[in-house]
């Protein structure tokens, strides 16, 4: 007899099926806002931590245990595949990814090669298998993820975090054919990273194009769409839901959906009702609470959660989340309260 499939409100919502409760999880639910995270991680850098499958399992499960969220997200980073092929890629605490040798021209493309998951990131595959084992009794699904080609390219070209991504955009404008080769290579890497995670057991994937909001619609369509589409369409045959997310991407929602997303991750700049109009076809939605609300707990914050729930559950296929990652200074009890409110809400 086939093993019964555990019901999952999160996976049902991704497929736009009506659910009895609205599923909820938080981007960056593992991490510095949790005291148990700080003590488990100790002094190891994040890139060291992700190479320890037992530690990754513990860090991934911590928020699931504490908050009773409806999905786990693998503890990893978008820079992991790039760090596996270039020892000059670091993540500096409080700052973000830093690249020793920036990509500034054609000769730098040679430093990027195809990702060989079994050799380059065996610890990610091992961690996913361990986590799936631990999650099996609860049926809570595991989300895998990758950085989208544009967001990865931005770190490689800027050499670190950037406010305006000007150097990246100037590169793309002035060297369109080198840009195309770079972003296509990054699409292959992101695709291999996601495929490996799904084959190891990830039951949904999220493509983080965190910084795509720096682009106009025309720029996104001309310079980025094809590469992101290659990643999302490349995992379609594996049959897991694909979430596509960016910050400040209100103007890009339609092409981001058309790149091959089953779920659109929405920040807080646009209302969920507007997103539905802009995308123009039924699609599952995730997100929308400004993470800053979590620093203002109380009745007004709760009213905002309820407002978003009302708007989100107007049609089936809504997953509650923040509009970006949990801020490190967030009090975990605030997130616990949000989960309680979301689960108490009747979406019908
Ligand atoms: O719980 C989860 O969400 C899973 C873990 C996760 C991390 N990074 C761990 C991490 C996820 C999903 C990411 C994705 C990621 N990494 C993105 C896309 C999501 C987004 O926030 O837009 C981006 C842009 C990165 C690159 C990156 N890595 C940044 C900007 C930073 C922050 C630097 C800082 O210290 O503020 C990191 C480091 C990082 N990745 C941390 C964690 C928990 C914090 C650093 C630490 O704990 O030492």
The kinds of small molecule bound in this structure are: coproporphyrinogen III
Q: Report the β-strand fraction as a percent range.
A: 5-15%
Output the radius of gyration. 19 Å
Number of helices: 16
Task: Write down the secondary-structure element order.
Answer: HHHHEHEEHHEHHHEHHEHEHEHEH
Write out the strand line-up for the largest beta sheet, numbering strands in chain order.
1-4-5-6-7-8-9
Instruction: Provide the number of structural domains.
Output: 1
- Sheet having the most strands: 7 strands, parallel
The CATH class assignment is: Alpha Beta
In the CATH hierarchy, the third-tier topology is known as TIM Barrel
Helicity, as a percent range: 40-55%
Count the beta strands: 9
- Residue stretches low in confidence (pLDDT < 50, at least 5 long) are none
Shape: globular
N- to C-terminal separation?
Answer: 34 Å
CATH A-level architecture: Alpha-Beta Barrel
Structural classification:
alpha/beta
Describe this structure in words.
By secondary structure, this protein is an alpha/beta fold. It has one domain (9-344): TIM Barrel. It is built from 16 helices and 9 strands. It has helices at 9-14, 35-41, 46-49, 53-67, 80-85, 117-120, 122-135, 149-158, 166-174, 176-200, 217-223, 225-234, 253-258, 272-279, 299-312, 332-344, and strands at 72-73, 89-92, 96-99, 142-147, 204-208, 242-245, 263-266, 284-287, 318-319. The strands form 2 sheets. The protein has a 7-stranded parallel beta sheet with strand order 1-4-5-6-7-8-9. The protein is globular, with a radius of gyration of 19 Å. The two termini are 34 Å apart. The relative contact order is 0.15. The model has no long low-confidence stretch (mean pLDDT 96). Bound molecules: coproporphyrinogen III. Coproporphyrinogen III (CP3) is lined by residues 27-32, 46, 73, 75, 77-79, 91, 93-97, 145, 208, 210, 325.
């Amino acid at each position: 007899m086939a093993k019964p499939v555990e019901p999952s409100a999160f996976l049902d919502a991704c497929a736009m099926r009506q659910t009895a409760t609205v599923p909820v999880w938080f981007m960056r639910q593992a991490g510095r806002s949790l005291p148990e995270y700080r003590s488990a991680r100790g002094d190891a850098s994040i890139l060291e931590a992700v190479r320890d499958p037992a530690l990754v399992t513990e860090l991934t499960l911590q928020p699931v245990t504490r908050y009773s969220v409806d999905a786990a997200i693998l503890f990893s980073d978008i820079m992991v595949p790039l760090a596996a092929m270039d020892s000059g890629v670091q993540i500096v605490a409080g700052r973000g990814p830093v690249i020793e040798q920036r990509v500034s021209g054609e000769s730098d493309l040679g430093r990027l090669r195809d990702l060989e998951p079994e050799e380059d990131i065996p610890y990610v595959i091992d961690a996913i298998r361990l986590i799936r084992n631990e999650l099996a009794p609860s049926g809570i699904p595991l989300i895998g993820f990758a950085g989208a080609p544009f967001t990865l390219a931005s770190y490689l070209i800027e050499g670190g975090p950037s406010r305006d991504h000007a150097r990246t955009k100037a590169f793309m404008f002035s060297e369109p054919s080198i840009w195309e080769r770079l972003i296509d290579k990054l699409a292959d890497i992101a695709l291999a990273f996601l495929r490996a995670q799904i084959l190891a057991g990830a039951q949904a994937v999220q493509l983080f194009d965190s910084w795509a909001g720096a682009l106009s619609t025309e720029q996104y369509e001309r310079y980025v769409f094809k590469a992101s589409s290659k990643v999302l369409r490349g995992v379609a045959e594996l049959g897991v839901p694909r979430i596509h997310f960016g910050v400040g991407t209100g103007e890009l929602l339609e092409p981001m959906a058309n790149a091959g997303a089953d779920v659109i991750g929405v920040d807080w700049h646009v209302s969920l009702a507007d997103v539905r109009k802009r995308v123009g076809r039924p699609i599952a939605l995730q997100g929308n609470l400004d993470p800053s609300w979590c620093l203002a707990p109380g009745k007004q914050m709760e009213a905002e959660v309820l407002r978003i729930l009302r708007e989100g559950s107007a049609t089936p296929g809504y997953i509650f989340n923040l509009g970006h990652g949990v801020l490190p200074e967030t009090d975990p009890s605030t997130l616990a309260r949000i989960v309680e409110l979301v689960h108490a809400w009747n979406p019908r």
